[in-house]
Write a structure and sequence with these properties.
10 helices; porphyrin biosynthesis; five-stranded mixed sheet; alpha/beta; D-Maltodextrin-Binding Protein, domain 2; binds the ligand NCc1[nH]cc(CCC(=O)O)c1CC(=O)O; HemC
């Protein structure tokens, strides 16, 4: 069996793709692979902030074309960057074991961020949540690969800290840069964060059978529930929706938070159910957030999209 893999060229995408090749080879040593690198919208447009792209898949649109045209057979995604609606004919074929899903600070820690300190992040969720915890700091929008983002700490932009995902740092061998793991109950992470997802064609039975062998049922239940919630809210990964999924006596517990962009308003919901009802659990959490006014906050975040080239308030 020969599997063609579509991948971005960024160090993180390459590390993730190679990791998945290793997982598949451990179960099916005879499998051969070829890599088909591609530039996504996110690679071609290095200027816009992510939320300006709206809820389209800035990392996934070109990949889905590669899959549909059969140029490639599978694509490895950071699940948090994969929209909750896939292109017709494509499926989320497998979710392997999840890495640490937490967000982290690199540079200054929460306790020693001084008033006026600058914290770098390109995500509206991280922006809203750090403003909520530390109202007197300044958030500076940054994007780019993980390495260059770390290099901005204490550099020309005067950033005291940047917020990143622990999973990405670990996959790049850069976890030594983490100075504080943020408690996900206080600082919930993005839907799907820390998990990889492999997208394939829904009718490609041979490939789907191989991919099933690297699935982790717990990780799958977690991301199914988180993604069902995000889908019901109509939100994408860059909106201020955070989650923290845990297990209690074999049951899945979903804690979710919507934060206003200025950090002043916070709507939370905590629901639990069995793993088999992961999707229903996600929908229940979305409904609770809606009843508590969370959707109104998201709608006002959407309105701040509208083609502006600066963050609201930045
Ligand atoms: N949006 C970029 C992105 N996509 C996935 C990760 C990290 C790895 C993961 O969450 O699985 C990152 C970098 C970051 O947010 O720090």
């Amino acid at each position: 069996m020969h599997i063609k893999i579509g991948t971005r060229r960024s160090p993180l995408a390459m590390a993730q793709t190679n990791y998945i090749i290793g997982l598949i080879k451990a179960k099916h040593p005879e499998t051969e692979f070829s890599l088909h690198p591609i530039a996504t919208i996110a690679d071609k447009d290095r200027v816009s902030e992510f939320h300006q792209f709206g809820i389209i898949g800035v990392f996934s649109t070109e990949h889905e074309e590669q899959l549909v045209s059969r140029e490639v057979d599978i694509v490895v995604h950071s699940l948090k960057d994969l929209p909750t609606t896939l292109r017709e004919g494509l499926v989320l074929a497998a979710v392997p074991e999840r890495e640490d899903a937490r967000d982290v600070l690199c540079g200054a820690t929460l306790d020693n961020l001084k008033p006026g300190a600058k914290v770098g992040t390109g995500s509206l969720r991280r922006r809203a949540q750090i403003m909520s915890l530390c109202p007197d700091i300044e958030v500076v929008p940054i994007r780019g690969n993980v390495g260059p983002r770390l290099a901005k700490i204490d550099g020309e932009h005067g950033l005291s800290a940047v917020i990143l995902a622990q999973a990405g740092l670990q996959r790049l061998g850069l976890a030594g840069a983490t100075t504080e793991l943020l408690d996900p109950q206080l600082f919930p992470h993005a839907v799907g964060q820390g998990a990889l997802g492999i997208e394939a064609r829904g009718d490609d039975a041979d490939v789907l059978a191989i991919l099933k062998d690297i699935e982790d049922p717990k990780a799958r239940a977690e991301v199914d529930c988180e993604r069902a919630m995000l889908h019901a809210l109509g939100a994408g990964c860059s909106l201020p929706v955070g989650v923290c999924t845990s297990w209690k006596d074999g049951r899945l517990v979903l804690h979710a938070q919507i934060t206003s962009l200025d950090g002043r308003e916070r709507i939370v919901a905590t629901e639990e159910d069995t793993a088999e009802r992961a999707v229903e659990l996600g929908l229940a959490a979305a409904e609770t957030l809606r009843l508590r006014g969370g959707v109104a906050i998201l709608e006002s975040s959407y309105r701040s999209f509208g083609g502006h080239f600066k963050f609201l308030g930045a």
